[in-house]
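WP5 quarterly update. Target: Spore coat protein U domain-containing protein. Source organism: Endozoicomonas numazuensis. Length: 294 aa.
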Amino acid sequence: MLVVLALTLSSTASAFFVFGQQQYIAPPFTWTGGDVTIDLPVQLQSCNGTSVGSGFLSCGWFKQLETYTIEASDFDFIASGSASSIAMSKVTFQQGVNSLLIKDGGTVPDTSATFLNPGNWQQVTGNVSVKINALDLQGQPPGNYQAVLKLKGMESGGWIPYTDNSDLIFDLKIPDRIQVSGLKDIALNDQALQGSMDFCVYTQSGSNFTVRATGLDTDFLLSGQVGYQLRVGQGGIMETLSPGVDGQPWSGSTQQYCDGASNMNLEVTVPSSEISGLLPGVYKDTVTVTVSVH
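Structure tokens (predicted):
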């Protein structure tokens, strides 16, 4: 008697998924203003088989791709100190023709049933893009922040779902920034010997700052002849500046450009005694204003 045994191997009987690394680290990023976008390439393999390689029942034996899913969690940048966390505003994953929205604002879509085609049974490269809105960074205390975004990948065709995990590490530095804006020319005449203007000083987290001013030749002199006084302040409190000397601390705004407003006032005054006997003409000076975090 002749007995014939037939073994049929289904290409979908077993499937395999693996990330190229268990941990990926993005280059450190220092915020200098505006929205932040950090891209991090990741490798993965999703295929029919029980393992990578070319052995019996491996992916290299079948040489067939398998669709997969990607999920993610832990979307916050945590400070090394006591500062509050910073949430990622948007997270996307792209690989081949696939584009997956993982997080958008406060919404985290369920991606567990979104099947992605790797386009190849061998290892492929995708990209995770993390965005942080500038508004979420302004006013945040200076320091070092780190996020560990956790990725979970799973093939979709095996009898027993095969999953793998990888940690994506992002390091963000927020420096102690300061910016002055809104300074402009002040015109005086012999009938109006005093003038003023409002301006803005922004500091990261609203930290204190000082103001230092110098004339074109250090001293406060119009055309090297006419002395004048400079005063700065906020909230009705003013101080008189000495050329090249830091003044008292003031509170910075946590909004760049003071959100279209101002938080400081500068006042220039020419004593009437300075114009006595002065010849007619135009007298001017260029003032350099320097602000420093206190």
